[in-house]
Specification:
Blueprint: H1 10-35, H2 43-68, H3 76-99, H4 105-115, H5 119-134, H6 153-162
Helix pairs in contact: 2-3
């Protein structure tokens, strides 16, 4: 490279040479990426590759516009870069969702069902036990009172009087 009057400015020359090497490396990487066979890639890898390629090319174009001295604040490239960033975030959300632990639905149903209190079943069991226990309770008249309930006011009074 011919730097003319700036050949004595070592800082400038070294920065330009480093930039030139970096651009050559980027060019080689893009050429390799374009030549890659994406047929063998999984869908996730294809999506990552496409996003990487789109962002790289658009970023390079953005840098070119900046170096060329154009106003990039109103240029469409900013909108395109933000759109690609949104796609990156959506892709990351999809990948994060796949990594979340899953729930075994059948096991969860069994746990919930086993943990719930079955009022109907317990009520029937209580009625059966109560009827067996108090089936032979006798009233004052000496008759068997099948519907004897010690918690009613009248029966509590009778129980107290019987004791």
């Amino acid at each position: 490279m011919d730097f003319g009057e700036l050949k004595n400015d070592t800082a400038f020359v070294s920065k330009v040479e480093a930039s030139s090497k970096a651009i050559d490396n980027i060019r080689k990487m893009i050429e390799q990426a374009i030549e890659m066979n994406t047929e063998e890639m999984s869908l996730e890898d294809k999506v990552k590759f496409d996003i990487f390629l789109a962002y790289s090319v658009n970023s390079l174009y953005f840098m070119y516009l900046k170096v060329d001295g154009q106003d990039v604040t109103t240029h469409e490239i900013r909108h395109e870069l933000s759109r690609i960033k949104e796609v990156m975030q959506k892709n990351q959300q999809v990948l994060d969702k796949k990594l979340r632990p899953t729930v075994a639905v059948d096991a969860a149903k069994r746990l919930v069902k086993g943990g719930l209190y079955d009022f109907k079943k317990k009520n029937e069991e209580f009625k059966q036990r109560y009827q067996n226990k108090h089936h032979h309770q006798q009233s004052r008249s000496g008759k068997i009172n099948i519907n004897y309930n010690p918690n009613t006011a009248v029966n509590r009074k009778r129980k107290f009087e019987d004791d």
